[in-house]
Amino acid sequence: MKKQFRSFRDINELIKDMLELKERHSAVETELKEMRERYSQLSLQFAEVEGFSFWDIGNYYGVQLLDASVTKYQDYDGDIKICSEQGKGIAS
What we know:
Blueprint: H1 2-47, H2 54-60, E1 64-65, E2 70-76, E3 79-84, E4 90-91
Keywords: Coiled coil
Coiled coil: 11-45
């Protein structure tokens, strides 16, 4: 009988540990999402600074720009996009 109670106690302890891990995992996921959003916002702000050379971005990331009048740099979930006034994109 004591072994059964100990077994139930062990199972309850494992369930409790699992729930704590799920909570921590959820908190880390939320923090990661917030960090990605902040990174995207900072990237956009950085790219909108006057005189910023988008050719440098293209060279750094190994992309070839299709148009010289690049005006915007957008970063959504880590994807890098370089856009011109005419709406042209990039070529890899």
